[in-house]
Amino acid sequence: MTVQELPGAGASHRVTPPPAWRPRMEAAPLLPDPEPYRVLGTPAAEELDPALMRRYYAELVRGRRYNAQATALTKQGRLAVYPSTVGQEAAEIAAALVLEEQDWLFPSYRDTLAAVARGLDPVQALTLLRGDWHTGYDPREHRIAPLCTPLATQLPHAVGLAHAARLRGDEVVALAMVGDGGTSEGDFHEALNFAAVWQAPVVFLVQNNGFAISVPLAKQTAAPTLAHKAVGYGMPGRLVDGNDVAAMHEVLTEAVKRARTGGGPTLIEAVTYRMEAHTNADDATRYRTDAEVEAWKAHDPVQLLERELTARGILDEEGIREARDAAEAMAADLRERMNADPVTDPMDLFAHVYAEQTGRLREQAAMLRAELEAEGE
């Protein structure tokens, strides 16, 4: 560090900091676009892959029907709670479809649809929300971390897994999903900082659906966008129309490829809207107007893609009917299996908590076993 005497000051003044203060990269390339990136309804849509878009359309239709059926199950008492993703299906499904088999998905509690789109049995995806198990599936088998109810705690886990995979030389990418409310949690900032410093192969997908329960985004942050937060950690920020499934696919595919090839993490903000209440226990009319919801219905992700594909001759009435029939079949199967009473064992409370049970856990299990035996007698 250079020390310079100021004229007439009679004391030293440090004017040249050490080189370590300098940023690792220029900020400009990391900044997101001023407006959300779009494909549908733009000239870029001319390059759409017909087969891929038909697949996305079928998944969107199935996702919408899945949301409707899960919501109905809460009204029938078969689910304790359900956080709907109606209006967010494009971001949910694209997050699943861009991953390869060896990659990991780290969902939040609202992202059961992403898990289903990745191949998880819909009944297993909903088991947590029914209250049967902490996690209704084997995370290692499906490469899907447990659905995370605490906000943003899955993000550091995603970074740790991705960093470990890179140290082993495995070509694994972790895609971590979080809502706009989760960006106000400390775990969000810690995860981004570690990921950028380690250049971990992680993609952070923020679904900005407008509200953290009843709190609008403007009351959470003064940042220009959530994507701008990436710059402070030294990673690219991307702002994308979260209801445009073609744009979501393109941006996520690019970020996953960048992570896999050693380019480090990316923060993506998908601008979308939560069309339904936070959960079935929430009264959304207390903090937003019907007119606001109606305005967003004109930007519905299913209709956006359907209009584009039919206008371009990629999708016809038969294709639409096939997608709806497949979605109805899925819903009927889900309804039938969820209406069967689950067989539960209270001792399962102690399973899968630790690889080896602690002494205290064994004591608690023995106490419960004794109580159950006494009740049986």
Task: Explain what you see.
- Residues 67-343 form the Dehydrogenase E1 component domain.
- It holds the Pfam family E1_dh.
- Residues 1-23 are annotated as: Disordered.
- This protein has 377 residues and is an alpha/beta fold.
- It has two domains: 30-344, Rossmann fold, CATH 3.40.50; 345-377.
- The protein contains twelve helices and nine strands.
- It has helices at residues 50-75, 89-97, 112-117, 122-130, 139-142, 154-168, 186-198, 245-260, 290-297, 301-311, 317-338, 359-376, and strands at residues 2-5, 12-16, 104-106, 174-179, 202-208, 211-212, 215-216, 237-241, 266-271.
- A five-stranded parallel sheet has the order 3-4-5-9-8, with helices on both faces. A two-stranded antiparallel ribbon has the order 1-2. Strands 6-7 form a two-stranded antiparallel sheet.
- Helix 7 (186-198) links the parallel strand 4 and strand 5.
- Helix 1 crosses helix 2 (89-97), helix 1 runs parallel beside helix 11 and helix 6 (154-168) packs parallel to helix 7.
Distance between the termini: 80 Å
Structural class by helix and strand composition: alpha/beta
Percentage of β-strand residues: 5-15%
Strand line-up in the sheet with most strands = 3-4-5-9-8
Q: Secondary-structure element order, as H and E?
A: EEHHEHHHHEHEEEEHEHHHH
Radius of gyration: 24 Å
